[in-house]
Write a structure and sequence with these properties.
By secondary structure, the chain is mainly alpha-helical. It has one domain. The protein has helices spanning about 1-40, 45-50, 55-80, 80-90, 90-130, 135-145, 145-150, 160-175, 185-195, 205-230. Helix 1 packs parallel to helix 5, helix 2 (about 45-50) crosses helix 5 and helix 3 runs antiparallel to helix 5. The protein is globular, with a radius of gyration of 20 Å.
C-alpha cells in the first residue's frame, strides 16, 4: 500500500507532462511528414522520408525534455511532499526503486510510441507508392537502412538492444537520484545519449563508449543509494 501511495505521488507530479510531450511529438511528426509530401518532396525510400521529416531530431529533443522533466519533477516532489513521504515510513532505498521503475516506464513509453508512429508513417507512405507484399519488405528494410530507426528498434542486433536497455536504466536511475546533487551530471548524460543515439549497424567505438558510460552511471547511482542514504534508513 505504501508503494502504491509513493507511485501515486510520482504519477501526480509528472505523468501528465510526459503524456503531453508524447502527444506533442506525435502531432509534430505527423504534421511535418505529410507537409513535405504535400509539398512534393516525396521519396520512394521510406527511411529518407523519416529523415526529411526531422523525426530523429523531434524524438531526441522530446527524450531530453522528458528526462529533465523527470529530474526536476522528482526534485520538486522531494521538497513539496517530503513530509508526506516521511509519514509513509518508506525508506529512501525503496523509494529510489519505485522512482526508477516509474522513470523507466515513462522513457520506454516514449520509445514505444515513437516506434509505432514510425511504423504507421512508413506503412501509409508505402501504401501510396508500393502495393502488395513489397510494402512489408520496405517496412522491414527501413528499420535496417536508417540509423535512427535501427537504433530505436534494433531488430535482431542483440548488442544494440543491450545498449538501449542500459540507456533506459541509466536515465531512469539518474533521474531517481538527481534530487541530491546538481544537474550537471544529468545534462552530461542526456547530451551523450542524444549525440550518439543514432549509430549504424554493428558494434562501433561509440557503442562501447556508451556501454561503459551507462554502466558507470548505473553503478554510481547504486553506490549513492546504498552508501549516502545508509545512515538515513
Amino acid at each position: 500500500m505504501k508503494d502504491i501511495s509513493a507511485l501515486a505521488l510520482l504519477i501526480k507530479s509528472s505523468l501528465y507532462k510526459i503524456l503531453a510531450l508524447i502527444v506533442e511529438m506525435t502531432i509534430i511528426e505527423f504534421f511535418i511528414f505529410y507537409y513535405i509530401i504535400d509539398k512534393g518532396q516525396n521519396f520512394a525510400e521510406s527511411e529518407l522520408m523519416i529523415t526529411k521529416a526531422y523525426i530523429p531530431y523531434t524524438f531526441l529533443a522530446m527524450l531530453a525534455i522528458a528526462f529533465m522533466v523527470l529530474c526536476f519533477s522528482e526534485k520538486g516532489l522531494d521538497k513539496k511532499s517530503g513530509y508526506t513521504i516521511q509519514r509513509m515510513r518508506i525508506s529512501k532505498k525503496r523509494f529510489f526503486v519505485i522512482k526508477t521503475i516509474y522513470n523507466v516506464f515513462c522513457i520506454v513509453l516514449l520509445f514505444v510510441v515513437q516506434t509505432l508512429v514510425a511504423i504507421v508513417l512508413i506503412r501509409n507512405h508505402n501504401v501510396e507508392l508500393i502495393k502488395g507484399e513489397h510494402e512489408y519488405q520496405q517496412l522491414f528494410l527501413a528499420f535496417y537502412r536508417n540509423d535512427f530507426l535501427h537504433s530505436l528498434f534494433p531488430m535482431a542486433e542483440v548488442l544494440r538492444w543491450i545498449r538501449n536497455v542500459l540507456l533506459v536504466l541509466a536515465l531512469g536511475m539518474q533521474a531517481a537520484v538527481s534530487e541530491k546533487k546538481s544537474h550537471v551530471g544529468d545534462f552530461c548524460l542526456i547530451s551523450l545519449t542524444v549525440s550518439w543515439f543514432s549509430i549504424g549497424m554493428g558494434t562501433s567505438v561509440m557503442d562501447v563508449f556508451c556501454y561503459i558510460a551507462y554502466l558507470i552511471v548505473i553503478a554510481v547511482a547504486l553506490v549513492r543509494v546504498f552508501s549516502d542514504w545508509s545512515e538515513e534508513d
